[in-house]
């Protein structure tokens, strides 16, 4: 067991998740010289990070752990599929993808969760996705953590939903009801050629923060925070970066019933990379 594995296991066992995440956010954003370099090197070893993919592979140039964690990749390694309607917004592993049935989405075998609760509890926000489609991508610590636009679109609204910070690993996904509607999340609505498309960035234990390209790092608050952007011309093209996670989590994409189908090979546990087909 590497030092990184031991540290994560120990702290997760002994510390409440909210406290752990707060501590993680502070420590990973602080320059700590040789100790930072030690953490980064252990992280690379623990999760078998391929440095050949990294745009800047000079480890000594990263002053904090998070500087490395949100590393950019060489752009040619994530080509954007131009033949499909929309692409996967991030690297990761498919949790589930398919039809939103009677206002419910599949979390795991025997478990589902509410569409309305996922997007913040307002029926007006959820009804355009009734009988629509969804794709859920889990990001492990080893994955590239920047999030990209699945399709050309204009940002119209975001809803920050405060919540818990439970881990989103396989054990919790398979056993904890309503995991994605309990955890903190940022729900982003875009106007696109296929109708309203929603990208939900779900927080989790050890996620120091959720960061967006249009408003920076999201501050954790007590109540719902709704921001509208209809009068601002904030547009992104297919494949443009729209945010990132500081540590692993989940991205759920929602789209309307007539907006296209889930790519046939997007099955549970399939590893995917940003830019490959998602909606066809």
UniProtKB/TrEMBL annotation:
Swiss-Prot/TrEMBL site (Cleavage (non-hydrolytic)) positions: 248-249
InterPro entries associated with the record: PS_Dcarbxylase, PSD-B, PSD_type1_pro
Pathway connected to this protein: Lipid metabolism; Phospholipid metabolism; phosphatidylethanolamine biosynthesis; phosphatidylethanolamine from CDP-diacylglycerol: step 2/2
Keyword flag Lipid metabolism: yes
Membrane topology: Peripheral membrane protein
GO MF terms held by the record: phosphatidylserine decarboxylase activity
One Pfam entry name: PS_Dcarbxylase
Major subcellular location class: membrane
Domain of life: Bacteria
Catalytic activity: a 1,2-diacyl-sn-glycero-3-phospho-L-serine + H(+) = a 1,2-diacyl-sn-glycero-3-phosphoethanolamine + CO2
Cofactor binding mode and count: Binds 1 pyruvoyl group covalently per subunit.
Names of required cofactors: pyruvate
Family the entry assigns: Belongs to the phosphatidylserine decarboxylase family. PSD-B subfamily. Prokaryotic type I sub-subfamily.
PANTHER family for the chain: PHOSPHATIDYLSERINE DECARBOXYLASE, PHOSPHATIDYLSERINE DECARBOXYLASE PROENZYME, MITOCHONDRIAL
Function: Catalyzes the formation of phosphatidylethanolamine (PtdEtn) from phosphatidylserine (PtdSer).
UniProt protein name: Phosphatidylserine decarboxylase proenzyme
């Amino acid at each position: 067991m590497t030092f990184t594995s031991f540290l994560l296991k120990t702290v997760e066992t002994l510390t409440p998740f909210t406290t752990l995440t707060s501590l993680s956010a502070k420590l990973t954003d602080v320059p700590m010289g040789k100790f930072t370099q030690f953490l980064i090197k252990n992280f690379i070893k623990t999760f078998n990070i391929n440095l050949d993919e990294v745009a800047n592979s000079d480890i000594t140039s990263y002053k904090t752990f998070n500087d490395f964690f949100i590393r950019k990749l060489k752009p040619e390694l994530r080509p954007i599929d131009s033949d499909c309607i929309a692409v996967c917004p991030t690297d990761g592993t498919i949790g589930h993808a398919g039809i939103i049935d009677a206002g419910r989405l599949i979390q795991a075998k025997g478990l589902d969760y509410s569409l309305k609760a996922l997007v913040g509890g307002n029926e007006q926000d959820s009804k355009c996705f009734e009988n629509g489609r969804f794709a859920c991508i889990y990001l492990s610590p080893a994955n590239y953590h920047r999030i990209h636009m699945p399709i050309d679109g204009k940002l119209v609204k975001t809803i920050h939903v405060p919540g818990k910070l439970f881990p989103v690993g396989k054990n919790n996904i398979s056993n904890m009801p309503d995991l994605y509607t309990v955890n903190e999340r940022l729900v982003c609505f875009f106007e696109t050629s296929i109708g309203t498309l929603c990208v939900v960035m779900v927080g989790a234990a050890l996620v120091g923060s959720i960061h967006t390209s249009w408003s920076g790092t999201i501050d954790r608050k007590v109540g719902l925070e709704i921001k509208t952007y209809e009068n601002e011309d904030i547009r992104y093209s297919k494949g443009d970066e729209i945010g990132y996670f500081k540590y692993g989590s989940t991205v759920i994409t929602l789209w309307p019933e007539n907006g296209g189908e889930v790519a046939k090979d997007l099955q549970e546990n399939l590893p995917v990379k940003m830019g490959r087909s998602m909606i066809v």
